[in-house]
Amino acid sequence: MAYRFNLFPGSPTIRDMFSKRAIRYQWRDNGPVITTAILLICVAVWIVELLLWLLWPSGLNELLGFGMFQPMHAVSRPWTFITSMFLHQPTSLMHILFNMISLWAVAPVLERLMGHWPFLALYLLSGIGGGLGMMAWGVITPNGSGWLNASYGASGALFGLFASLLIVYRRIGIDISSMMVWMVINFAMPFVMRNIAWQAHVGGFLIGALFTWLLISGAHSLRGKSLTYRTAVYGAIVFVLLVVAVLLCDMGNPAEYSACCSACRETITG
């Protein structure tokens, strides 16, 4: 049988997304239920952002200020590692559209192969890895300007999915032509557009690759265990590594340094 090129392999129809019967079937069949939920949440949040931008700009600033990720304040506001994944630029249709098209093209295949909970773990860990990438850039930049960059969007998590697909497809020998279209476009975006958090792309890609590699080729003693069990074990390990790496990066946080200096001055002058 000839191979049929498809940019959206494994993706359900729009009608199936809102059918209770189809959702129940998809859940039993490892269909993209989590993928659909992520997509709908992102779109719903973007619509709220858009309405706030049109009707209540100060409310939009409050929402973005609460949810977006900024390396300098990441440790004191840890929820932004997660909330930033579901925010998109309200004044740009292309931001939400391109990310959701990429999600719809890539994620259903992975969720079918991995199962719902391993896929969700991969997505969230990769998104957190995107935040770590931003913090690492803050440490690397000589003038510390990287600590001031704020970012939001699903691209860090998406790059973790790209890395996972490369590893999984290479392992099982499936043609990845359709996936390569989205990967090449996403990797090229920072070179043709400004204000794209490529640091989050790198962080998400590396963490997604690490987590997937552990699931497939981890400790020999765990290879006979169920995927759910391995997800729990390796997910916990990767999460702990992320926390440690974030705390190590935060040691170079200029805000922490300034706070310590202020405390010292107060102690000395008090």
Could you characterize what this model shows?
This protein has one domain (14-269): Rhomboid-like fold (Up-down Bundle). The N and C termini lie far apart (81 Å). It is globular and about 45 Å long. It is built from twelve helices and no strands. 71% of the residues lie in helices and 0% in strands. Helix 8 (155-172) packs parallel to helix 10 (198-217). It has 270 residues and is mainly alpha-helical. The chain has helices spanning 14-17, 20-28, 33-55, 57-67, 80-83, 93-114, 116-140, 155-172, 177-192, 198-217, 227-250, 254-269.
Features:
270 residues; mainly alpha; 71% helix; disordered N terminus; globular; Rhomboid-like fold
Can you describe this structure in just a few lines?
It holds the Pfam family Rhomboid. It is found in: Membrane. This protein is mainly alpha-helical.
Task: Annotate the secondary structure layout.
Blueprint: H1 14-17, H2 20-28, H3 33-55, H4 57-67, H5 80-83, H6 93-114, H7 116-140, H8 155-172, H9 177-192, H10 198-217, H11 227-250, H12 254-269
Helix pairs in contact: 3-4, 3-6, 6-7, 6-8, 7-8, 7-10, 7-11, 8-10, 10-11
Average pLDDT for all residues: 85
| Sequence of secondary-structure elements | HHHHHHHHHHHH
Q: How large a portion of the residues is in β-strands, by DSSP E?
A: under 5%
Q: So, the CATH homologous superfamily?
A: Rhomboid-like
Helix/strand-derived category reads: mainly alpha
Number of helices: 12
**Name of the CATH class:** Mainly Alpha
The main β sheet shows up as: none
